Description:
Layout: H1 6-16, H2 21-33, E1 35-39, E2 48-49, E3 54-56, E4 59-65, H3 68-75, E5 81-85, H4 86-93, E6 98-102, E7 111-113, H5 115-126, E8 136-140, H6 146-156, E9 165-173, E10 178-185, H7 192-206, E11 213-218, H8 223-231, E12 233-236, E13 260-261
Parallel strand pairs: 2-13, 4-6, 10-11
Antiparallel strand pairs: 1-4, 1-5, 3-4, 6-7, 8-9, 9-10, 9-12
Helix pairs in contact: 1-2, 2-4, 2-7, 4-5, 6-7
Amino acid sequence: xxxxxxxxxxxxAMQADLNDDAARMRFYERLADRELFLLLSSExxxxxxxxxxxxxxxxxxxxVFDREDRLAEFVGVPAPYAALPGRIIAGxxxxxxxxxxxxxxxxxxxxxxxxxxxDWLAQTLSSAPDEVEAxxxxxxxxxxxxxxxxxxxxxxxxxxxxxxxxxxxxxGHADGRxxxxxxxxxxxxxxxxxxxxxxxxxxxFSGIDVGELDVGFFAEADEIAQKLTAIGLRFDLxxxxxxxxxxxxxxxxxxxxxxxxx
Length: 262
């Protein structure tokens, strides 16, 4: 038996207790974050791809697999495919009335996800935190639950090079509100939106309510950054990957240029 993937494990946890909202959210997070292999009906034409459509009763589905060998096992013969992040596939299917078949018949995580669920996933991934200005009057040790800390650690683990590190602390505001602040220290130029989105997804997919989670960006020399680092919980982000030789990429691998769904 082949080694279980993260998607297999998340699916098993979800199936173990269908009333566990947090487990279900973690499954969808894994689905969004993973590179998936989308079965196509023909070879890609430039940036255009045409997924193979399957009809089950009145529903339509496209098929994805979280490993190439699983796609090959399902098809049995050479077949065209596109390797895309799950979040890109969700965006492609949004509003199309098309569901997603995942690892059908070839893995423990075999599942049919209806079109309505894919619409929800795409909407959840596209939501962004609100921008507000707040005056911090107090910095406290964080009191966030372990499930959120784990979610943040996993999400920030894929944000290499976007900031030097992050720090989570409890904060009090001048208007009496209390919550948490996730501070990114020495963020890369232009990375603020991506970092805020990562924090927002970690909170959303953790499946818990911890009140307010603010996101801030500071230079390491800032006085507040030093206080946050002294009191808060630090998350080190991976160093940026070394530059690689440019080569042709699969259609849709650039999130800014998603493939056109025919």
